[in-house]
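The protein record quoted in full:
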Amino acid sequence: MIKIIILIYLFTTSILCGTEITLNDKIKQQEILSQSQIYIDYTKKMTITDITRKEIVFNENYKSLLGYGYSPDFNVWIKFSLKNNSPKTIHKILEYGNTLTTHIDFYDTTLGYIEKDGVLQIKKDRKTINPIFNIELKAYESRVYYIKASSFVTTLIIKLNLWDQQSFYNKELEHQFYLALFFGAMAILAIYNFFIFIFSKDISYLFYVLYILGVIYHQSIYTGVLFIYFISSDVFDYVINFGSLAGMMPVLFLAFFSKYFLKTKQYPIFYKILNFLLIVTPIVILIPILTDYWDTSRNVMSLILLIFVLILSIYATYKKNRQAYFILAGWIIVFIAVLLMYLSSKGIFNVYEYFPYIIEVAFISEAVLFSIALSDKINGLQNEKNNVHQELILQKKTENQRLEIQVEEKTKDLNISLKEKTLLLKELNHRVKNNMQMIISLIRLQTDDIEDEHIQNLFITTQNRLNAMSQLHELLYQRDNISYINAYEYFTTLIEGLQETYYEDVNINYFIDGDLQIEQAISCGIIVNEIVTNALKYAFYEDVQGSIDITLFKNDVIYTLIIKDNGKGYNPEVIKKSFGLTLVKTLVESKLKGKIFTKIKQGVEVKITWREEYE
């Protein structure tokens, strides 16, 4: 009789309180949703007081995961009972297995305690991916708990697990480690392909980088990493309200990537349809989402775009587009990943129960495939470049042979013309020199008949000036290269003639290094003639050994000519109107475009500088 009463009591208790879950501190992880009861509040107004005091009928649940999809119009209440049959206190962690639920309220009816969590009311000290609640049951204690879950922006997915503390934190550490590997790998791929874009300027790489960033952003929201580590609670609402955009960004950028990477212009019909979808999809994304209709349309557009590009990849593969093989494989992986995510959000098939990181693995695999495709494209372009290079080498070789023949013929003609020109120039210089010598001879004959010493000196000076130019043409006649003249040979020949005319017993010291351009040599010859003539005529006493130093050197493009004597000097004020000095200054400034410096101290030193090239 007593046994019957106990059975009736237990049966009645089970009806009133639902299934009681027995805790065991030796069990590391325990799924409890399938042993809980569910009530749907379509009014969204019921409080914990209403739930516990009114005659609310909770329905039994046997599923380990409940997916309600986008569910902004109702709250889900979960009721479960826990019992500690052991003689010691048990500490457990209750994990709510979805990070995107916006509001989660956890009620301990025994203590009248409420704890809130969820994306829009996340606990400040929480560092776990999923919301957690601490549960403590003393020896032989039983308690009834309630959870109210709602999500008016994202899909509502419910999964409950009880963990012992050590096992949970071990699991959480491992979980976050794998997520860090995923985000790190994706970031490395993004950086690598971004630098390829910088150097190659191929826009398909840019859209691929944007696709990877879209995946990173999407997964950071989907896994909850963004809310835990990177953004403050002030921007939660904004990110959540536009959170579904994260699902469209990778699809959109991947479509742009496929457009350029597959060179879809070669498929005109597909190209036009894809362009239309790429215009319409961003418009749908940017329109403010005010109703369920628009949220549904946005998801539908993503699916349409995804399916169309999948069809395009199949067609390109059929047309034997080499890059399409990689794209098709990647698209199939993405499509399967998106489909499994959708089935999980609807509670149809919980893929995470069998493959916890299938989405991350899918995205990594797809990204690696596309990176291989890009590398293969680079190899293909390199092969094409090598083939073109070989063709160019062959063409260049043929062209070089043709040009060599032409150059040989032209060279022969030019050599003949050059020889003729050289002969003509030499003959011209010879004739000029002869004519000038004839003029000099006539002046010399005329000078012998002049008794006035001043006029005679003028004739001799004119004769020396003409002789300076005559000597230059004589040297040009003797040389093959008529662009430059040997300064040492020119100056020595010139000054020897002056010594014969004026004063032989003067030491001339030459420090000459370099050649002179013909245009500059004419001016330099006249300048040297004037200064040395003045020195020979006026600088030296009869009983003093005279000396003249002539220095010429070139530093980079600057010429320096220095003529220095050890004579008695002169008074600049007395002879400042000398025609010879005026001629020298004019030649330096007008012809050489240079500067002249005169220093009178223990003789006369004239320093002239000019540039090799001048206008």
Summary: The chain has three domains: 20-163, 178-388, 483-615. The CA atoms of residues 190 and 213 lie 7 Å apart.
